[in-house]
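ok trying this again, last paste got cut off
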Amino acid sequence: KAVKHSIGEKILLDENKFKCKYCPKAFTTEKYRDSHMKSHWGENAFQCKTCNKSFIAKSHLTEHMKFHNDSSKKFLCSECGQRFIRNDNLVVHMRRHRGEKPFKCKFCGKGFTRTTDLTVHERYHTGEKTHLCVICGRGFGRAYNLTVHMRTHTGE
């Protein structure tokens, strides 16, 4: 039987712990279980319902949601008129207009407009698999690929 704790989270009183839907682990609180379950989806556990983009933290999703609200986009691209909520996003966008790719792969020399794209690309050269399936141990270079893979275990 579950009861509400003073801070509002459910805690189980018997051995029927809060069980993970994706692995055999069980937890004493719903909060701990829910936090653990996010690990099965790689680093991107929070998904935008408008465009399906995923984020590692709820605060990142909240910040992203502002992109869907035109009134908060204060930084204007002088080339195409697209608006951005943050100046650093405009800077990256302007690199695309100018064809600038300042971040170069140390293995093949390919250029990228963002460091995050370079990091993901270099994993192809190194074979690094930063996103591991906790059920079967298979590794993936991208969180999205792990998310798709998890569907083979959950039947979704």
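PB: full thing came through this time. Residues 2-41 form one domain.
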